Amino acid sequence: MPVSRRQCANAIRALAIDAIEKAHSGHPGAPLGMADMAEALWRHGFRHNPADPAWFNRDRFVLSNGHASMLLYSLLHLTGYALSAEDLAQFRQWGSLTPGHPEYGHTPGVDITTGPLGSGIASAVGMALAERLLATRFNRPGHTIVDHRTYVFLGDGCLMEGLSHEACSLAGVWKLGKLIALYDSNGISIDGKVTGWFTEDVAARFKAYGWQVIGPVDGHDCDALDQAIAAARGDEDRPSLIICNTHIGFGSGLEDSEKSHGAPLGAEMAAAAKAALGWEAEPFVIPEDIAKAWDAREEGARLEQTWQDALVAYRQAYPELWEEFTRRLDGTLPAQTDQILADFVKKAQEAQEKVATRVASKNVLSVLVPALPELIGGSADLSGSVGTKTASSTILDPAVYEGNYICYGVREFGMGCIMNGLAVHGGFIPYAGTFMVFSDYAKHAIRLASLMHLRVIWVLTHDSYAVGEDGPTHQPIEHLNMLRSLPNCDLWRPCDSEECAAAWQAALGRHNPTCLSLSRQGLPFVAKPAQADIARGGYVVRDCDGTPDIILLGTGSEVSLCLGAADVLAAAGTRVRVVSMPCCTVFDAQDADYREAVLPSAVRTRLAVEASWPDYWRRYVGLDGDVLGIDHFGASAPGSVLAGEFGFTVDAVVARARALLA
Amino acid sequence: MPVSRRQCANAIRALAIDAIEKAHSGHPGAPLGMADMAEALWRHGFRHNPADPAWFNRDRFVLSNGHASMLLYSLLHLTGYALSAEDLAQFRQWGSLTPGHPEYGHTPGVDITTGPLGSGIASAVGMALAERLLATRFNRPGHTIVDHRTYVFLGDGCLMEGLSHEACSLAGVWKLGKLIALYDSNGISIDGKVTGWFTEDVAARFKAYGWQVIGPVDGHDCDALDQAIAAARGDEDRPSLIICNTHIGFGSGLEDSEKSHGAPLGAEMAAAAKAALGWEAEPFVIPEDIAKAWDAREEGARLEQTWQDALVAYRQAYPELWEEFTRRLDGTLPAQTDQILADFVKKAQEAQEKVATRVASKNVLSVLVPALPELIGGSADLSGSVGTKTASSTILDPAVYEGNYICYGVREFGMGCIMNGLAVHGGFIPYAGTFMVFSDYAKHAIRLASLMHLRVIWVLTHDSYAVGEDGPTHQPIEHLNMLRSLPNCDLWRPCDSEECAAAWQAALGRHNPTCLSLSRQGLPFVAKPAQADIARGGYVVRDCDGTPDIILLGTGSEVSLCLGAADVLAAAGTRVRVVSMPCCTVFDAQDADYREAVLPSAVRTRLAVEASWPDYWRRYVGLDGDVLGIDHFGASAPGSVLAGEFGFTVDAVVARARALLA
């Protein structure tokens, strides 16, 4: 007798119970509740190859309610990924492959890191968009090499988050028909029955976004689920939301209770739950017939082989496209990238133009965008101001999925997560811009990019009080400090076109996120000594004879102030060194000799000048130095007036330096 | 002949054009587009008193699309607030009353700071909720002293932001019938026609939230607007959204163009626009008949006088309620607050209990909540974990608007802005909790609270790697640094119950936001010397004889590590001082003598220990000291295992201290 589908689903439930009990930690409610949904999807038409988790044309799976991690780990184990029963038994332990929430790059088969609610569904929109754009770019008649779906499981929490609004509204605009979301509607969140705080009509809301809404269906009825998923797959013109009515903690003594959400059932209830499910096997053991029913390796190998064969044919038919395709999937840059940037720098050095670094960034992009088809730009409704849209940028047209530029609308967080989805999917280097002060809205997207080591580039302009008239709501003060405190994330604050090109070069060359901090206002071109090596993050931009009496450190718009102050001080006989420090983290990563050469430890008279929260700079100037920063909110007035009021003038720098020297 | 309503609206348009032209900066499109909406509302049933902008029972006005500031300033000027034509002529200039975006506490009549899109409508939800809760609490038959509406103007941008989803969904749950939003639907955002990125059916979306949706109406047809506003006022069971179809830049040569959004029209077009509007007066001059038609002072005085009379009658009828009412509007605490906290501390000192500081915080709240009716708590769906719900907390019941606790659902940013609305309305001290790592989602709400000097208290728990098994997505690393870089915001990271009580006392006693950083894990009670003054933010918790060889600085969960290390070091003959620094900003604000007494400048061998991004502490330890922090993401494993792996053990502190002393 063949195993029943419920028995297959119960394998997930049993493994989830076992692992959570063993860990004395975890979230049983969601895996128990969603097991039938998972069985319906993963055993019926989900296209993947357990032997090759990185197979490009696999369907993507996003567990937006990431606390249900044991559901995903169970699926990976059952279908044949390199995730053993021993790995499951190490759930939530140091060094294991099965951390508390799914982690991209850590566990084979995990397509994206989730846990922070809403971020999964939002990034899935980016993944689904990536698929459509690549399909347009590379598929040719008779040669369909890009063709996969993005499936999402999500819960009530994801739908409460504003992030889901931003991304799902865009998914409707973009008509992402190959995005299929299964909503685990169990009516429970951590504080209890959601009727007290979540009464909206989700179906009507998603219809308003332009989605196909299917259901509600019984999320424990495999036939109903099959039909729903078929209907979703059948409509490639609209993204689909399948509303699945489920019971959290299905089969356990805490069914339908928030108490099943975030803590182990306990030995007794765990045993009872397994008995109620008719599950008799030992912990972490899957009966052979059920194991066989789940095993997706043979079918997966077949699917990938078919695709590999198609790719061979594609290579023969379209060798140039094949080359671009494989290069972009590898994430390597076009060979001419460095030369393009070198040419740009040469011209910038010749022109010595006074220019806002947001414009300098646009100028850099203007030479990069035509040469790098993997660049996909955008802005949260500030394209003109932030300089992300170049003459070679064409706005995404969802009718045909052409374009290399996305108007995200006023949706910073959604933009950030969609960029993460584009990056994690592969084939793209996303960049997008907003005012730096609104990086707040997107902070957690930048965090997730940092955690996942994604090459995502944030163009954050209007980076100080010098925003001027728009006032304190639009003037960043604390943001440089915030973004510099993010592991793996580099923040570049270039002082001119040349440093701006170096920043872009660094950003393109690393597999981690980069934030560019760019000025609204024009900044003079800075003449640099021949040996200046911007790529090292910090360098001596103006030196003196002998040991400096004082070192001035500046970034971005304050470098020219430091240089002006150095002139004044030097004229009065002070030996001044000026260090430009566009990227502190890159400078910190240099060898000790280089750092000592730039900032000799014997010279403790150091003044850092940056129009931002001053604390950060104490790591360079210590207790003996000083920082000219801003420890208060800005104000509404012309930027030049604020410069005087807030002390960002050559005179003010000279005065602070003299006070330090006295 | 009486002046026409269009002429009245054109007064707004003319003033907006004049001020923006004079400033050479600003946003003409929205004031020109919304002038008729503003006329319909402000001249017809908007209850306020220009002579007393702080009149409690006024209707509130929230300009959620805050870039339309000149609309609001014009209204304030025209209706008779202390905002002169000269003030308007100083639009966007240093020290003027008319900054680029409306600033609460700066300009008479501005009810809330706006500009960051979505935040206005979200905070308006909090303002409208405050009104309903106070009405229930204080109104008595025949004595209606709380009865006002909250009106909001908002644009496409606000509706794209996820924040609007979170807050408006809750407004539907809460049936805030006295919240009326007028949507300036002009089909244009900064990047152009919104059809490329904003195609959702807004009416259907808001109906899905449970709102009354009115329109679309012609936003330039005063009769249609009158009817719509009347219908909105007529339904007190549901919040209302009036969709007003308007033309951005109405009457100007840039009508219906995004080019009218964010830059002056220019002299020529400005003159043409005024001519087209039939406006002939000199710049900043309002013809007498139009001025008279706008003047709301007499009616405003009458409205407030009626209320003041009612309040006198109320005082006689309900003296105790009157006392609480006036006290809460003043924002003063109950007289017994300090004693309650002193009693708590005494018991904590006796009990010396090992307790997680999130539990300590709950214990403090458990004595405060019954005594402070102005406390309104809540959580973003983590009530049990973050300890914000006490035995005296009753969940908000929108059927009767009773309760002192809000289940916000998984909506951190919405929660933050709603708290800002509750605080800015008056009568409440909002506090609410989430995991510290998700403060990211709400960062900008905390920023706005800081900018507005609002007494809002954030309970941020699970404040380090010690979260343990949930892994890096749930372990804050950079957040302490982020929140400490926010002007006006204090972050307290208490080490035990006693410090926790001090933190709450400080938070309640200031008119600015406070973040509490609290542990998931149990922390030992710390014995303190008699002279320890926690309220000073930092103090010597363990000293040595003579000048210390080394000072250990710790906060929160790391204080006990420092004390343990001090024991080991002292046993080996090292003179060790330990400083507990629960609130750096409060410590920094102490007099120099006190700071010197705690951190003698002669002692440069300093080791800071905090399980967070280390840079911040360089301001205390300089270049000669060291920081034991975390400059990488966390991992999923039991917290005690991570403590060993990440070096947060007594042994590790001792080793770092010895390395520094060597």
From TrEMBL, chains A, B:
Its EC number is 2.2.1.1. It holds the Pfam family Transketolase_N. Belongs to the transketolase family. It catalyses: D-sedoheptulose 7-phosphate + D-glyceraldehyde 3-phosphate = aldehydo-D-ribose 5-phosphate + D-xylulose 5-phosphate. The keyword Chaperone does not apply. The record marks 27, 261 as: Important for catalytic activity. CDD domains: TPP_PYR_DXS_TK_like (cd07033), TPP_TK (cd02012). Residues 355-525 form the Transketolase-like pyrimidine-binding domain. The active site is at residue 412. Mg(2+) binds at residues 156, 186, 188. This is Transketolase. GO terms for biological process: pentose-phosphate shunt, non-oxidative branch. One of its GO terms (molecular function) is metal ion binding. It comes from the Bacteria. Thiamine diphosphate binds at residues 67, 115-117, 157, 186, 261, 438. Binds 1 thiamine pyrophosphate per subunit. During the reaction, the substrate forms a covalent intermediate with the cofactor. Binds 1 Mg(2+) ion per subunit. Can also utilize other divalent metal cations, such as Ca(2+), Mn(2+) and Co(2+).
